[in-house]
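Hey, can you fold this one?
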Amino acid sequence: MKINFTLFSTILIIICSLYNTYGQNNKKEYAFEMDRVIAEFKSELRKQKVDTVLQAFYLYDNGRGDKATDLLFWTKNGKHYVKAIKTAKKNSFKEFPIKECPEFNEILDFYFDNIKAIIGSKPKSKMWLSHNYGYSINLKINRTEFKTYLRDEKRVYDKEHFRSKWIHLIDQIARPYIEQK
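Sure. Predicted structure:
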């Protein structure tokens, strides 16, 4: 009986691996149409010579989940803007309109006020989860760039760390723009 169970399990794994899961193992340039749209939009911002761009991508670290959200904040001519794109169903998404976002200045101020603490160390956690959501952050100001990834369990466990606080601030400012109807 053990041999039959092992054989059955092996065959099942082989069959399952033939199907492309929701983003895993996808070798295309853009695994999701949402990724292509965001890349094209970022390219347009570069063409407009926008000097400050923050991309905050909330995603599941093992493919793409239904809460995945890509946020772009930027500054142009002294005004701050945000654009949000959120997954709806498998490989479909909703694009939210570009909105003025004066709160982006709070995100930048917090970053510059706490830059050493944000860049210098990582939040600690005694928790570990195999797969979870988290924020991938890419802040580009002129020729300077800062990238980080922080999973939710670390952000929640070490709430007092400045990187956790900064990402929490980004999340709180973004919510009204992605929860709009």
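The mean pLDDT is 78. Let me know if you want another pass with a different chain boundary.
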